[in-house]
Each structure stands twice: as C-alpha cells, then as structure tokens.
Design a protein that fits this description.
Blueprint: E1 3-6, E2 9-16, E3 23-28, H1 36-46, E4 52-57, H2 74-88, E5 94-99, H3 101-112, E6 117-123, E7 143-144, H4 146-149, H5 156-160, E8 163-164, H6 166-175, H7 177-182, H8 185-193, E9 212-217, H9 226-229, E10 238-243, H10 250-253, H11 255-272
Parallel strand pairs: 3-4, 3-5, 5-6, 6-9, 7-8, 9-10
Antiparallel strand pairs: 1-2, 2-4
Helix pairs in contact: 1-11
Length: about 270
Amino acid sequence: MPFLTVAGVDLHYVEHGPTAAEHTAVLLHGFPPDHRLMTGCFEPVFADRPGWRRLYLDLPGMGRTVAPDTIRGTDDVFAVVQAAVRQLVPDGRFALCGESYGGYLSRGLVAADPAAVTGLALVCPMVIADHAARDVPDHVVLYRDAFAAALPRGTDFDAIAVVQTEETYARTQREVVPGLTVADPAAVERISRNYAGTFPLEPADRQYPGPTLFFLGRQDSSTGYRDPWQILEHYPHATFAVLDRAGHNAQIEQPALFSALVSDWLDRVEQAN
C-alpha cells in the first residue's frame, strides 16, 4: 500500500489503473470512513475503462492516514489533499469524485484551480458544514426486507439506510464500516471542532465549465438534496439527479442508476478532454 509524505502527513492512498493512462481521477471519501467507501462503488464503473488512472486517498485521521496534532480542522485536511494531488498528478489535470465531506473538499479544489479539474462528480455532497444549518428531510425507511427486519433497531445502519436489505447491509459492512472502525477518534474530534473550511467553495465570479454530476438521495437526512440545488448555477454543465429510495448512501441503495449516471459523466469528461 503506497504512502506519500505531504504537509507533515504520511498520506495513504490506493491506486488502480495504468500510471500513464490518458485520464486521471482523484476520489475523496466522506467523514470519517476511508477509501473503501469510494472503491466499492466506483471501481465497478471503471472496470471497462482501461484509459483511467484512479487515486483513492485516505484523508488525515481516517483509513491508514495518521493525523498528527497539526491537523486541527478542515483547512488542514484541505491543505494536505491539495499538496497530495500536486505530487500524485504531475501534469496537473484530473477529474474529481467526492462523496459527502469529500464533495466539500472537491468543491474547494475546483474553486482553487478550475482549469486543472477535467470533471467533477459529487455523490451526496456536503454543501453546508454546520449540521444545524442544513435543509434536510427527516430519516425514513422506505423498504425493509425480511433479512433487515431481523436486524436490531437503533444501529448506524438503521439510522442511515433508506432501503434496508441483505444486499445494502452487506455492502455497508464492506464499504463503510471498516473505515469507521479504524478512524482515529481524537483526530476526528479535532477536525469536527473546525469542520467548516475557510477556503472558497465555488470559483469566484465565474462558473466551473467542466462536466459535472450531482448524485443525490431524495431521502438523504444527512446532507440532503435541497442545499445542493442552491449551488447548481455555478455548474452549467451539471446533471442534477435526485433519486427516490435513496439516502446518504445513495450509491449503495441505487447501484444501477449510480453506474449509469457515473458512466454518462465519464463519457462527457472523456469527450471534453
């Protein structure tokens, strides 16, 4: 497993695809799972696209990336990610995929250098850092199969999942839970105290012209779908998809539509670049 030392942090990342590929994607997970949140849903889509190099980062304090005491908030996390991308992508051109907190960081990277980002995919992105200020629906469960009905209530899965089935439970155990288990509680708490970044989140006085995808859950009670609508005009070439029967792990609950919409986005990125 490769590590990269940047900004005083030994950052762990997972790489797939040829180093000299025509296209590069940088993928940023949510808070506080790890890269498996992204490899689980994106790698099946990339399987038929040999022209892509994929870089899945473990953010500081999450996965195998240890966060020193100098990492005290989202500004520090952003600085590490920005420095890592500069080193990992020497030609400076890459597509960005961000889920939840990773979507917040991705918007910051686009705002910092729009010309470097060949495309942007936001999966249930965090638009507003302050949980109390978000416009989100109440949590509901729309479907629960016999397997899920036998599970205990009140678990993290029960609190997040809108479609509760044996398959969504299994994928949550594979893709989400391992990262939650290994996250550093002290680092997570430090970052949470300074959760809002001070960096710009959209390009100043202009729009981002690259192919963009918003993949959102209609029943997402964590980051919602209404706040992302408020920033849509910054992205004139965005597909904005709000899916029924989908919560904050919409990529797990609606895998066929996730695959179709991400494939369409990748087509647009390839054709534009």
